[in-house]
Design a protein that fits this description.
The structure holds 2 protein chains of 2 kinds. Chain A contains no helices and 12 strands. Chain A is mostly beta strands. The chains are: A mainly beta, B mainly beta.
Chain lengths: 114, 117
Amino acid sequence: AQSVAQPEDQVNVAEGNPLTVKCTYSVSGNPYLFWYVQYPNRGLQFLLKYITGDNLVKGSYGFEAEFNKSQTSFHLKKPSALVSDSALYFCAVRDPIYGQNFVFGPGTRLSVLP
Amino acid sequence: NAGVMQNPRHLVRRRGQEARLRCSPVKGHSHVYWYRQLPEEGLKFMVYLQKENIIDESGMPKERFSAEFPKEGPSILRIQQVVRGDSAAYFCASSPASGGSSSYEQYFGPGTRLTVT
């Protein structure tokens, strides 16, 4: 069965500092991995995805994520956080062997402090 | 380009009533997914549909819930005889149809927030 863990409910970081939001996954095959961001009372916005190729993936708003197969991780990173990055972040996995639906992690609330 | 549209954005129903949630996918997308989000939780997959077909409904409760995606018109998620536990945000997402569709991201609508009183 597919599963996604986001070990931190909350991440606090000062504006201008680097940020990391952690994600680990479990699938039986080669995973497709995604990060989404959700602002209050809004739907999810796509940030980036890993399908194949380079392990470092660059996405929207200066975010990037590194796929690490040996550690089954896909941590989201940004070199310099902005207050406007404060939101709820979801990691998701899709195992193409098992179908089209995503399995989402529980979410990590990021607070960037001015 | 219009994104995924959902209506209504907010829906209040009394226990025992029916709730109908509508989703219009991105133009040209023929894959629709429904998810439920409880407060302070992640999204849980409910059902995956293509035009006129339910492909995967493994996340749908066995009773009271149904979904359709007709040839014409929006996808509908229907909840009969709602109970307080059905109160949640319901999100629809769509993706394109192609041989590599499993690699596509899903585009999410703004959600319908259902409150059962």
